[in-house]
């Protein structure tokens, strides 16, 4: 007799969990937003000035990365900065090849004149933290090996990508950037990198964008700001409960770095990006104040009148003038930060 599996939990239209341990990540929210979570296939030819490649960087761990290559890489004699991107999704959903990331990071690669590398991070609850952080840091170590010309991994038809990165990438100007929970990973990777010798690679900057920082006790913004299809309190709390190490609370340093000591850490310059209507802006600002108090080099970029990860919402970018304007402002701020570091 076949026993029908039962749903044990559901997270805001993004994820369904069953009693047999199976996890389904099929978006069931408003259908007009579905396309933003659809994967975009890589393309070796340039579309709007950017080519996209998916390659394996570690066969043992099945770690893969998506690489955005601006057309200027083939023509420019100057070395290009490298931006290492960590996708969001509360450590539980999303992939590096989703349209929402493709739409923004092809643009950033083109406007910043930078190569962007985005690993496919392991997801919770099957792979709880620090799995995604380990994947992120191992990608940074792979870049270090490229800088050192130590990696001999065959990339097959993508061999030229490795060669282009090794010769044209500026490994003294590597920037970390991450959306939402990816912003948490940015800080964790920056902390870990500060304790190790990455020569000849150098971190030139860290850009947490709307990081998922919060405490067990609700902040003022969690209680007062409006929810959206892209971030509800149910999503926020459930994802972190599933993603953090077993038995942890939201006061864990990964989600509450405001209370974690920053003394003695040789962190790169930070550009902390926050949104005025974000549920987590209060704790984001706590983190900003903690960085300043510790004497760290930190700039603040505030997006007014918009909420969490607004720039990933292609529908809003196309039809809402405020979202469009603030997205342009955000991209411009990131491009200027990269150019100046």
TrEMBL record:
Among its keywords, does the record have Hydrolase? yes
**So where does this one cross the membrane?**
none
Keywords, ordered alphabetically? Hydrolase
Could you tell me one molecular function GO term of this UniProt entry?
hydrolase activity
Read off the InterPro entries from this record.
AB_hydrolase_3, AB_hydrolase_fold, Carboxylest/Gibb_receptor
Keyword Hydrolase carried by entry: yes
Q: Matching Pfam families, A to Z?
A: Abhydrolase_3
Q: Where is the Alpha/beta hydrolase fold-3 domain?
A: 83-311
- Give the similarity note: Belongs to the 'GDXG' lipolytic enzyme family.
Q: What is this protein called?
A: Alpha/Beta hydrolase fold protein
In its UniProt entry, the species of origin is given as Artemisia annua
């Amino acid at each position: 007799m076949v026993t029908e599996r039962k749903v044990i939990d559901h997270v805001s239209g993004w994820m369904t969990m069953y009693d047999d341990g199976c996890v389904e990540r099929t978006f069931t929210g408003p259908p007009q937003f579905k396309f933003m979570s659809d994967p975009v296939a890589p393309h070796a030819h340039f579309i709007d000035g950017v080519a996209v490649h998916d390659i394996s960087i570690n066969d043992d761990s099945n770690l893969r990365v998506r690489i955005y290559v601006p057309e200027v890489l083939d023509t420019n004699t100057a070395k290009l900065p490298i931006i290492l991107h960590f996708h969001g999704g509360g450590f539980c959903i999303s992939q590096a090849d989703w349209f929402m990331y493709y739409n923004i990071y092809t643009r950033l690669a083109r406007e910043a004149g930078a190569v962007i590398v985005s690993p496919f991070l392991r997801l919770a609850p099957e792979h709880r933290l620090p799995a995604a952080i380990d994947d992120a840091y191992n990608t940074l170590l792979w870049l270090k090996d490229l800088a050192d010309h130590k990696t001999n991994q065959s990339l097959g038809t993508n061999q030229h990508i490795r060669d282009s990165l090794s010769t044209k990438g500026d490994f003294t100007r590597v920037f970390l950037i991450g959306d939402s929970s990816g912003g948490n990973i940015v800080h964790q990777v920056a902390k870990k990198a500060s304790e190790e010798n990455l020569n000849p690679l150098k971190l030139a900057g860290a850009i947490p964008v709307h990081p998922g920082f919060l405490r067990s006790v609700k902040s003022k913004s969690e209680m007062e700001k409006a929810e959206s299809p892209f971030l509800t309190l149910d999503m926020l709390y459930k994802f972190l409960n599933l993603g953090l190490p077993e038995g942890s609370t939201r006061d864990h340093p990964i989600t509450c770095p405001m209370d974690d000591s920053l003394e003695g850490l040789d962190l790169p310059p930070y550009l902390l990006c926050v949104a005025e209507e974000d549920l987590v802006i209060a704790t984001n600002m706590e983190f900003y104040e903690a960085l300043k108090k510790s004497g760290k080099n930190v700039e603040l970029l505030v997006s007014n009148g918009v909420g969490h990860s607004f720039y990933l919402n292609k529908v809003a970018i196309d039809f809402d003038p405020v979202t469009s304007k603030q997205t342009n402002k955000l991209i411009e701020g990131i491009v200027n930060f990269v150019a100046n570091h």
